[in-house]
Automatic annotation (TrEMBL):
Taxon lineage: unclassified sequences, metagenomes, ecological metagenomes
Organism of derivation: freshwater metagenome
Pfam families reported for this sequence: DUF4233
InterPro entries, sorted: DUF4233
TM segment ranges: 6-24, 31-49, 61-92
Listed name of the protein: Unannotated protein
Keywords: Membrane, Transmembrane, Transmembrane helix
């Protein structure tokens, strides 16, 4: 779950960074600073996913990613896509961890 979630967050951070570059031409410094801070926080959360609380913080940051759409309108759609990927990473990651734990348990019983 951690690796899948971290990969989604890193890609989200990179996409936000490129969107900030788009916003430089059209937006005020508020939009640029907002996007930069959110991109940085999302990137940091990717590294902190070892802790359970980082999943909650990263989930809360998804709202701020979608809100970046007020500065770059296409980010309403991109933010929704990344929220879907984030949810899928959590769901698929949990299933993968459960399957791995079951496999390790059966191997421990045999060996």
């Amino acid at each position: 779950m951690r690796v899948l979630g971290a990969s989604v967050l890193v890609m989200e951070s990179l996409t936000l960074g490129f969107a900030v570059l788009l916003a430089i031409k059209d937006q005020s410094t508020v939009g640029i600073v907002y996007g930069s801070i959110v991109a940085f926080l999302v990137f940091v959360m990717a590294g902190l996913l070892k802790r359970r609380s980082a999943f909650y913080i990263a989930s809360a940051l998804q709202v701020f990613v979608i809100a970046f759409g007020f500065f770059v309108p296409s980010f309403f759609i991109m933010g929704a896509v990344f929220v879907g990927l984030w949810a899928a990473a959590i769901i698929v990651g949990r299933k993968g961890e459960a399957a791995r734990a079951e496999l390790l348990a059966t191997q421990a019983e045999k060996g």
